[in-house]
Design goal:
The chain is mainly α and about 180 residues long. The protein has one domain. It has 3 helices and no strands.
Length: about 180
């Protein structure tokens, strides 16, 4: 076998091959349009995803705010119930306390006995005053008026007792002190 060197043959065609040029131009335009379209679609997709995320976060925030508000309302109602119950209990305890106080004051013959009777009454009276003060902070006007009336009734009864009123069969009563 004999190997020889074959020289390349170059064919020279005269003129411009417009078909090849237009094919290259069309390919380049298609590539640019394809890249541009892909970038545009990507940008649209990012904006849509961002808008969806924002809407989702806004909805989640609104749900969380609603949940927190509901829990705050439940806590407020529970706190009001505790304050109402404490006030009613202190007013209820004042009934026997003022009756016993009037009896103690009626039986007291010395200043020491009267001072001891007032000291025994002090805690019940202070508890009632504090409870009614809390009611004034949280209650509506109607409940506040009823608590104020009960307080005035008790304080009037205590003032009369401390001024020397004799034991009466009926202790003070008010709108919150109805016996059942």
């Amino acid at each position: 076998m004999i190997f020889g060197i074959v020289s390349p043959t170059i064919h020279v065609i005269s003129g411009t091959d417009w078909a090849a040029i237009w094919a290259a131009v069309a390919t380049a335009i298609a590539a640019v349009v394809g890249v541009g379209g892909t970038a545009w679609q990507g940008a649209r997709a990012r904006r849509a995803a961002s808008d969806d995320l924002k809407a989702s976060l806004a909805a989640a925030t609104a749900n969380l705010v609603t949940s927190i508000t509901a829990e705050d309302n439940r806590a407020d109602i529970a706190a009001k119930r505790r304050i109402y119950a404490a006030c009613l209990a202190s007013l209820k305890l004042m009934i026997p306390a003022v009756i016993m106080h009037r009896g103690d004051m009626t039986r007291a013959t010395t200043q020491e006995e009267r001072l001891a009777a007032r000291a025994r009454m002090h805690d019940s009276r202070l508890q009632m005053l504090n409870a009614v003060s809390e009611i004034r902070l949280i209650a509506d006007d109607e409940v506040t008026a009823a608590a104020d009336e009960a307080e005035r009734s008790f304080m009037s009864y205590l003032d009369e007792t401390n001024r020397g009123a004799a034991l009466e069969p009926e202790p003070p009563s008010g709108p919150l002190l109805i016996e059942s």
